[in-house]
Amino acid sequence: MTQILVEDVWRRYGSGKRAFSAVRGVSFTVQPGQLFALLGTNGAGKTSTVEMLEGLAAPYRGKVRLFGDLDPVADRAKIRPRTGAMLQEGGFIAHLTTAETLRMWAELTTGARPVDEGLELAGLGHRADVAVQNLSGGEKRRLDLAMATIGRPEILFLDEPTTGMDAEGRHATWKLIRGLQEQGSTILLTTHNLEEAESLADRLAIMHRGRMAACGTVTEIVADHLSTLSFGADPSVPIGDLPVAGTVEQQAGRVTITTGELQSDATRLLTWAAGKDVVLDRFTARPASLEEAFIRIANTTDVEPEETK
Ligand SMILES: Nc1ncnc2c1ncn2[C@@H]1O[C@H](COP(=O)(O)OP(=O)(O)OP(=O)(O)O)[C@@H](O)[C@H]1O
Ligand SMILES: [Mg+2]
Hints:
Layout (H helix, E strand, L loop, with lengths): L3 E10 L6 E11 L4 E6 L5 H8 L7 E6 L9 H4 L3 E4 L11 H10 L7 H7 L15 H13 L5 E5 L7 H16 L3 E6 L2 H7 L2 E6 L2 E6 L1 H6 L3 E6 L14 E5 L2 E6 L2 H15 L4 E6 L3 H9 L11
Parallel strand pairs: 3-7, 3-8, 5-6, 6-7
Antiparallel strand pairs: 1-2, 1-4, 8-9, 10-12, 10-13, 11-12
The structure holds adenosine-5'-triphosphate (ATP) and magnesium ion (MG).
């Protein structure tokens, strides 16, 4: 059974001349126990998409289903106890303490873990008795996280869970997320942090201007982008003669070859160097990184016109 299904979904704000489609035909599925990451530039439509999955807004067009056949808006009462959500902008009751806030939430949640355990897992044990209004930005995010995960939800939505957290907080959060995944939770998270996506996600999508510009595993996504070979060589090396299919550039004593055929170009280059007795100083061969794929997509500046029908 598909745990999360999103099929040609559109989200539109405003109407008439002011209409703006923030999500434009997005489709993906997440299987039970998988972690799917939505990466994207600011304003790409990540929060707008997640809100439709959380049942906070209905799609303008298209279909969203959770747990096989439940509609997030129509079946909200059934879905609510089985899901957890960490919104990008949560709100708290300012004068309650951290522990009181989590306790209040736990009482509303079926099968909640003990409050003390929830606080410890989110790294807030030492802040239990502090009024929420006096928590730091990162500590508030941790409390958000504790609330979203206290019920060990079957599906968990995390909208930028680690934004504003320090390195230790990020790692604690990743550990908590992995732990929930090991216990069977299906997780959808949005992030700007490529390392976060790369280290946590089974599959991910890169969104840009309302569309999904790429979707798959990290390996599948970077496969569509060019790889790089590089080495240092003195100016006497005839770089015009290199037997490679890629584009060759030389700068500050280093030669860079950008290629779609990493393995065969590397083989040809090394064979050529061996034959000519040329030393390729600090030779490297590497596929495109997720960061390069992301930046290439983010730099696409096409603006699609608003649909009028
Ligand atoms: N209520 C609204 N009315 C009009 N436009 C909106 C509204 N909410 C969001 N938008 C627009 O929709 C687009 C997508 O916004 P969204 O919040 O989904 O982006 P995001 O990918 O979550 O960005 P970020 O990484 O900054 O959180 C943005 O251009 C935003 O300005
Ligand atoms: Mg957002």
